[in-house]
Fold this sequence. Notes:
33% helix; 18 strands; 13 helices; 8-stranded parallel β-barrel
Amino acid sequence: MSMIVRRLSRAATAGLVAAAALTAAAHSAEAADTLGSAAAGQGRYFGTAVAASHLGESDYAATLDREFSSVTPENEMKWDATEPSRGSFTFTSADRIVDHAQSQGMDVRGHTLVWHSQLPSWVSPLGAQDLRTAMNAHINGLMGHYKGEIHSWDVVNEAFQDGGSGARRSSPFQDKLGDGFIEEAFRTARAADPAAKLCYNDYNTDGVNAKSNAVYDMVKDFKSRGVPIDCVGFQSHFNSNSPVPSDYRHNLQRFADLGVDVQITELDIEGSGSAQAADYTKVVEACLAVSRCTGMTVWGVTDKYSWRSGGTPLLFDGDYNEKPAYGAVLSALGGSGGPGDPGDPGDPGDGASCTAMYTRTADWSSGYNGQVTITAGAEPISSWTATVTLPAQQSVSSLWNGTPTWSGNVMTVRPSWNGPLAAGASTSFGFTAAKNGSDAAPTVGTCTAS
């Protein structure tokens, strides 16, 4: 489909897409929450990687359409798939994904423009000047075809090597064009589609380490010189040998503090049961605690099609059943309807009750950390709600182990993973507040149990 015909087609179907989105939103409001609708309630998207070849499978498409608000083509927008011969573009498979997403009112992340892997054979032998021309032509050709239709592009992918050096990875682009190829790719991408968010994407950068420090320094430099970068993607592939790092949230926040959005772009966590669910909860809570974490994408719909299928790393099993990790993610997003979710209907007993007690756990000149301990009464509870009223000048910059909503300076906190409590048992949530000239303590309201 030509670019002009595609845009005419898109304009002609805009009303249908809007109607589909409204219908989906109305359905979500009436039915149990889904990942996409629950994330939207937190101001985030919740997406998945999609393979065009699976869209014809009814369970795959139904799960995709019901649960997710954003899609990333798994392979269909990579260089070997879109420009197998120089100057000859093919978009059939990628168009299928984009068209499907638009019909469901979903956003699309473009993945990826410049990457050392999955290059067609004609790219690597090019000389420096020819390679530069080819790189820019590829960016313009791919982004031009989808101009105005892609939410975020992974402009450059995985340009730093692993290990402790923080050095750039050897690739045709790095070896022949030098460090400047990343900046050039971002500048070309901005001109090609000024409305799209432009991201740098990498793996093993989820915690503070030599590799993430090198990426951080690059982003800081780009922002200081006006290089057009809008976001940084953290792939977040985890397993027992590479667990969710303890400084994951801190790492996301330090990048956000540079003035870029952060996105969790390829999330999958090997494992099963409650341990896997707890790890997924950590990731979701970290994103919710960072205001510029705009969304999360899991790398696939179902375990059976995962690139790590043996590790069963996704939220739906091979039969599209919701796993415990699904319920944990949904609960962490403030939704209900997952298996065993604290929001499921039930009779908690007439005597369900809880108390909330506040303590300040850390203090410094400009801010402090607060902790609210929730304790169940004489009977078990399935969930709880507590309110915290801050002095008017103060503001909360992050919160963990809970899901907040705001009304003025009143913060209402519900559990993320920690709703059910045995009789007399306790849990807690914490937050970081900026004093903004006031050292007064917040007021904790009545704890409500269900």
